Amino acid sequence: MDCGEHDGKIAIFLAEIFPERIKVSTCIHAIVLPISGGRLRVRKASKTEALKGLAPSSLLTPLGAGHSGFALLGRLVDTVPAYWIELGTNTRAIPPCIESLMSF
């Protein structure tokens, strides 16, 4: 298993572990930006906030798409709604909360 390390975070390449479970493509219905702490709640994020939240980890890491991916990321942000989710401490409540975003 190849793993990369960046800023104390470990990257595990799921395609190497479960290649049969990885889809070639999928539909993205929403962008969800997590925030640690607080109480579990969801609020709308602006397109600028979504882009700022996604860009560092999606574009600027050693495994990221670099500057060439910025336009693609911008089109994604323009296409789907974005939300902040404050995770709180009740981890069991998080999946239903994320599922509820599909009805917004």
Structural description of this entry:
It is a single chain. By secondary structure, this protein is of the alpha+beta class. Helices cover 33% and strands 22% of the residues. It has helices spanning 14-17, 47-59, 70-79, 94-100; strands at 3-6, 9-12, 31-35, 41-45, 82-86. A hairpin with a 2-residue loop joins strand 1 (3-6) and strand 2 (9-12). Helix 2 runs antiparallel to helix 3. The longest helix has 13 residues, at 47-59. The protein starts with a strand and ends with a helix. Mean pLDDT is 78; it is low at 1-6.
Please write out the topology.
Blueprint: E1 3-6, E2 9-12, H1 14-17, E3 31-35, E4 41-45, H2 47-59, H3 70-79, E5 82-86, H4 94-100
Helix pairs in contact: 2-3
Features:
22% strand, three-stranded mixed sheet, disordered N terminus, 4 helices, 104 residues, two-stranded antiparallel sheet, alpha+beta
User: How large a portion of the residues is in β-strands, by DSSP E?
Assistant: 15-25%
Please report the total strand number as a whole number.
Answer: 5
**Whole-number radius of gyration?**
15 Å
How far the N terminus sits from the C terminus, by CA atoms, comes to 38 Å
Q: Helix fraction?
A: 25-40%
Topology order in helix (H) and strand (E) letters: EEHEEHHEH
> How many helices does DSSP assign?
4
Quick one: biggest sheet? Answer: 3 strands, mixed
Unreliable stretches (pLDDT < 50, length at least 5) are 1-6
Report mean pLDDT, rounded to a whole number.
78
Morphology call: globular
| Secondary-structure-derived class | alpha+beta
Strand order of the largest sheet: 3-5-4
